[in-house]
Amino acid sequence: MVASVLFAACSGLNPSTGPDRSLTVFAASSLQPPFQRIGSPSVVTSITFNFAGTQTLTSQLIAGAEADVFAAADTEHMKQLESAGLLEGQSRVFAHNSLEIAVAPGNPKGIRDLRDLARPGLVVVLADPSVPAGKYGKAALEKLGVWPAVADRIAPAENVRAALLLVSRGECPLGIVYRTDAAADPGVKVIATFPPDTHPPIIYPAALTADSKNPSAARLLEFLTSPAVRPIFEKRGFTVLQ
Asked: pLDDT tens for residues 65-90?
């Protein structure tokens, strides 16, 4: 999803008084809530967001899509772009997340905890393993020893936001989603959190693209890794370690 968002002053940072300097940011779909609430940390007066699965954004950049900043939901895809020479400098981690089980409104299947994942016939919606959320979810199921029993009951979704939507609509009884996405949807209920040691750390790095000529991109990156963003991200369920 692509959205244009007007910048406003935030945390004492002043918007531009000069010509409009539009900035393009490619960001993982799970970052949509906080990113759309970030005020202007630079001379930029408008920004265009391209929210999608991290693997989709990576493919778009490799294919020649233009962006100034890339914010991913894992380090693997970031390293892929670094190796391709498409990023400027090193990426910086700015937020962390956790993995949870969300159930449909009313919890029609009576799901109580992680042990219910092994229940025969129970459909589990999970983002495709090509995207970070799917990769983390599959790793957690493997670590818990239930992947063989669950594999043929997985309902794949394009990304974690799509997985959550299927649960919220009641089309799937449960889904493996990020804590932040579940917190943004009052229609679902979280019944369990996967222990951190069952999957790789869920971290969000951001970097400048090599082709960006917009000086505001560097200022945005500085803002994302500054203490000023902590309340924006923590209010939406992310963990910020700075």
From this structure: 999 999 999 999 999 999 999 999 99
User: How many residues are recorded in the chain?
Assistant: 242
Q: How far apart are CA 17 and CA 88, in angstroms?
A: 28
User: Mapping DSSP to helix (H, G, I), strand (E, B) and coil, where does residue 215 land?
Assistant: coil
What percent of the chain shows pLDDT beyond 70?
Answer: 88
Which domains are seen in the chain, by residue range?
Answer: 2-96+201-234 (3.40.190.10), 99-193 (3.40.190.10)
Q: 210-239 in b/e burial notation, b at 16+ Cβ within 10 A?
A: eebebebbbbbbebbbeebbbebbeebbbe
CA distance 131 to 33: 19
The pLDDT tens digits of the residues spanning 99-148 come to 999 999 999 999 999 999 989 999 999 999 889 999 999 999 999 999 99
- Cα angle vertex 143, ends 97, 182, to 5°? 30
| β partners of residue 26 | 50, 70
pLDDT of residue 28: 94
